[in-house]
TrEMBL record:
Its main location: membrane. It comes from the Bacteria. Belongs to the chromate ion transporter (CHR) (TC 2.A.51) family. This is Chromate transporter. Keywords: Cell membrane, Membrane, Transmembrane, Transmembrane helix. The chain crosses the membrane at residues 7-28, 87-108, 115-138, 150-182. The keyword Cell membrane applies. The keyword Transmembrane helix applies. InterPro entries: CHR_Transporter, Chromate_transpt. It holds the Pfam family Chromate_transp. It is a multi-pass membrane protein.
């Protein structure tokens, strides 16, 4: 049963996760943390942080980790857990793969269609809203445990927004700040 649930959850996330990984975060948390309880909110927050530091899209990285963890926590072996990881990753990628095939076939035919252009114009602000919702969801007690957390957040926000600090450098600086402030 967990296999079908895992496939269904990540297929649904792959279908409705317009806007990329950040837009998927609320869908992932709703199903994986709240409904099925495959991982805790703290683990989810850690996955988001780790996915920021590793290559690849956050949706795929989280699917890989959560697929493994869900199957492993259900009592299956390491080999079966790797299959669970592969299943979740495949399920989240499948809708995009199919959609890209279909779009590439029809794109040249409909690229100047006013209805298609209007639909994409409507999707843009919705995507920004989903990303903002994901950011607000991550503002929880697991991430902001004391004033030091707010200090790191404020510094990261200011350095990224105002001074355009490279995200990789920002991750390294935040990690160093965490070591200095919390060790």
């Amino acid at each position: 049963m967990i296999w079908l649930q895992l496939f269904y959850v990540y297929l649904k996330i792959g279908i409705f996760g317009f806007g990329g990984g950040y837009a998927m975060l609320s869908l992932i948390q709703s199903d994986v943390v709240d409904q099925y309880k495959w991982i805790s909110l703290q683990e989810f927050t850690d996955i988001v942080a780790i996915s920021q530091m590793t290559p690849g899209p956050i949706g795929i990285n989280s699917a890989t980790y959560i697929g493994y963890t869900a199957i492993h926590n259900a009592g299956y072996s390491q080999g079966m857990s790797i299959l669970g990881s592969s299943l979740a990753t495949f399920a989240v990628c499948l809708p995009s793969f199919i959609l890209v095939l279909i779009i590439s076939y029809f794109f040249s035919k409909f690229k100047n269609n006013k209805y298609v252009a209007a639909a994409f114009t409507g999707l843009r602000p919705a995507t920004v809203g989903l990303i903002a919702a994901a950011a607000l969801m991550l503002m929880n007690k697991e991430n902001f445990i004391d004033y030091k957390s707010f200090l790191i957040f404020g510094a990261a926000f200011l350095l990224t927004w105002k001074f355009k600090v490279n995200p990789i450098l920002m991750i390294l600086l935040a990690g160093a700040a965490g070591i200095v402030l919390y060790w």
